[in-house]
Amino acid sequence: MDSVITTAAKEINRDELEKLKRSATQKALFRRRAGKFALVIVNLAMSIFVLLPLLYAVSIAFMPSSELFTTEMNLIPGNPTLENFRQAMVKIPLNRFIVNSFFVAGCITFGQILSCSLAAFSFSFLDFKGKNLLFMVVMATMMIPGEATIISNYLTVSGLHWLDSYNVLIIPYLTSAMGIFLFRQFYKSFPISLYESARIDGCSNLRFIYSILIPLTKSAIGAMAVYTFINAWNMYMWPLLVTGSDRMRTVQIGIGMLDSVDSQSISMMIAGVVMIIIPSISVFIAGQRQLIRGMFSGAVKG
């Protein structure tokens, strides 16, 4: 009789233990889901807060001036119109400015990827006298602000008769210390035996870069391309200083011209701003994974 009671008590305790386990599991699952849901809500609220100025700018771009200059708080245009975009294209040669910016930013991006990858290859795989000292000098240039050299650079390009040309917009930016550092850190994750084996097999340096390094460094190239294109697209001070005709101006200068052409038409100026930020935002959205992966891939060796 006592054994039967003991067995029954054990069964009851086992059932209660199973119930407690299921209850604890359900509570933990509920807390995990509630935490994820709360995190999504917080992220959504923060994203709306951060994007609100951009969304409002897009709304103003489609808003007639009569709706903007009122005492009412119009967040959404009541009568959307494309007139602001048409006026922005008519007031200044914005098409020409956009073409110039695309050409300049594309050439700078290609040039920096090419020059920085070659320089980083030399610092990573080649052995020559003064390599470390030269690399330190290259890195030291990152501590010099661009404003400190802009006058000397202007005098140099002026002496070369490059003013108001594509040369002056592109050539001074065909390489960068940041790009050399990014590619070098990425190349450092590769064993030197990879290069030595390729050399033993008769592979030249350029063939090694083209056939082996480039396929393995697509994330670094993507990160460099996104970073460089956005920076080149947003350049303002240097193009303003070295260009003097509408034939060579870029989009950032064009937006300043919209402000001076008709300072009362804020909606027209905002429409121009929306048009010129679309390419940079599109490039960032398309390459954000490559940008993040490229920035962090070289940080962990192995």
UniProtKB/TrEMBL annotation:
Residue stretches spanning the membrane: 37-63, 97-121, 133-154, 166-187, 208-230, 266-287
GO cellular component assignments: plasma membrane
Cellular localisation: Cell membrane
Principal cellular location given in the protein's record: membrane
Statement: the UniProt record of this protein carries the keyword Repeat: no
Swiss-Prot/TrEMBL GO biological process terms: transmembrane transport
Keywords on record: Cell membrane, Membrane, Transmembrane, Transmembrane helix, Transport
InterPro entries registered for this protein in UniProt: MetI-like, MetI-like_sf
Domain annotation ABC transmembrane type-1: ranges: 98-287
Protein topology in the membrane: Multi-pass membrane protein
A matching Pfam family: BPD_transp_1
Family, per entry: Belongs to the binding-protein-dependent transport system permease family.
Protein name: ABC transporter permease
